[in-house]
């Protein structure tokens, strides 16, 4: 053993370490990638929560509307309230619908459009938004030339409630 120590002492083995090229900002890049990844995940979570909230608020509005219709139809009288809704009826077309329970009228203003349309509300069975979209809006869009002949204009605007008057403004109003 002494000989091996002596040999090692005379000629020590060559240990060499090759230097690894170091990139000075490599630690910063890892931090930057982590920060960007966390921000992307947070944005995706936030967008998901917002979309889920929007969906839930739409369902809540529809549920409240259905409950108000069921409560009103069971008593037979709807009170004096007004309900306003927006219908998306397709590409580049929509409509605003006003349920006026005091006047028992439903006002519809299609957009784009140059007139308003009203129909009587059945106090026992209030028409749903789908029914309004199918019946009133299909009559309106069927044929513009026949539209003026088949629908009677409202001559006395005092029949309309304040909300329907505001909805229609100065546009002509027809019975649908």
TrEMBL record:
Segments crossing the lipid bilayer: 32-54
Domain BRICHOS: 89-176
Chief subcellular location: secreted
PROSITE patterns on file: BRICHOS
Highest taxon of source: Eukaryota
A Pfam family hit: BRICHOS
Subcellular compartments: Secreted, Extracellular space, Surface film
Keywords, alphabetical: Disulfide bond, Gaseous exchange, Lipoprotein, Membrane, Palmitate, Secreted, Surface film, Transmembrane, Transmembrane helix
Signal peptide bounds: none
GO biological process assignments: respiratory gaseous exchange by respiratory system
GO cellular-component term (any): extracellular space
UniProt function note: Pulmonary surfactant associated proteins promote alveolar stability by lowering the surface tension at the air-liquid interface in the peripheral air spaces.
Protein name (Swiss-Prot/TrEMBL): Surfactant protein C
């Amino acid at each position: 053993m002494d000989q091996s120590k002596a040999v090692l002492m005379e000629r020590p083995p060559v240990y060499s370490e090759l230097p690894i090229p170091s990139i000075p900002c490599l630690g910063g890049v890892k931090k930057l990638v982590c920060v960007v990844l966390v921000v992307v995940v947070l944005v995706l979570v936030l967008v998901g929560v917002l979309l889920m909230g929007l969906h839930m608020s739409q369902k809540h509005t529809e549920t409240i509307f259905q409950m108000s219709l069921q409560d009103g139809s069971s008593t037979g009288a709807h009170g004096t309230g007004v309900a306003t809704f927006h219908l998306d009826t397709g590409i580049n077309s929509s409509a605003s619908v006003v349920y006026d329970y005091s006047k028992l009228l439903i006002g519809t203003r299609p957009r784009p459009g140059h007139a308003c349309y009203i129909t009587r509300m059945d106090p026992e069975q209030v028409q749903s938004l789908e029914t309004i979209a199918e019946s009133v809006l299909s009559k309106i869009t069927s044929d513009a030339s026949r539209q003026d002949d088949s629908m009677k204009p409202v001559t006395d605007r005092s029949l309309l409630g304040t909300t329907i008057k505001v909805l229609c403004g100065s546009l002509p109003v027809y019975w649908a």
